């Protein structure tokens, strides 16, 4: 297995959560990091924690010019870019019937268009280095559940984009993979649990491994391992691979029947909680996304 020592890895959404912890894990393995995101204070703090020889830049992945400027600046300062992890993402709360339409379209913009802009900006550098792009999708890409329509649609799109892009650039020496974490103990997951008790109750009723929670440290290690082996797929935890191969099961009539009593009870409660909140994004993401 190759290692990442001396390699330059650019991560979007690197200010906190999976992005920041993956940066720590890769730095521990000898990589140099380029941290990109919307929270400059947090990015600067993570970069300072990593020590000398790293880079950070504020950029919006939904703005092609913004992310291109950050990618090019990272390549100029660090000398090259070997790996890109398209990690930036948001998760709205609520159902299609009740959520703010702007939250739905913003989720698509960040989680799909953001991957496109990141990949397009990074490809010249990755082609030069015969590098690797890891697109962070989700378990949700193949396990749709009520209350997560926007997130599921966007992460399914991100997975499909990664698969199509892999066929476009493999002859250029660039490998593209997709990562499929389940519930990771991050700010984003905790924000949803805090905002919507009904959603948290429904999540706990899902069959294993759809309900399992993984620490951000274990997720970061899995991502770093995936980078080192230029993985086609990264599953966190590994049992998520089972759901990938059984991806038609969660949307099947059997599971629908089993979940029907829970859905009938908790979806209306979820919609009431979203109405009471008066927003369809977490409080932090509402401020960041405008």
UniProtKB/TrEMBL annotation:
The keyword Oxidoreductase applies. Keywords: Oxidoreductase. It comes from the Bacteria. Residues 7-186 form the Ketoreductase domain. InterPro entries: KR_dom, NAD(P)-bd_dom_sf, Sc_DH/Rdtase_CS, SDR_fam. The keyword ATP-binding does not apply. Belongs to the short-chain dehydrogenases/reductases (SDR) family. This is SDR family oxidoreductase.
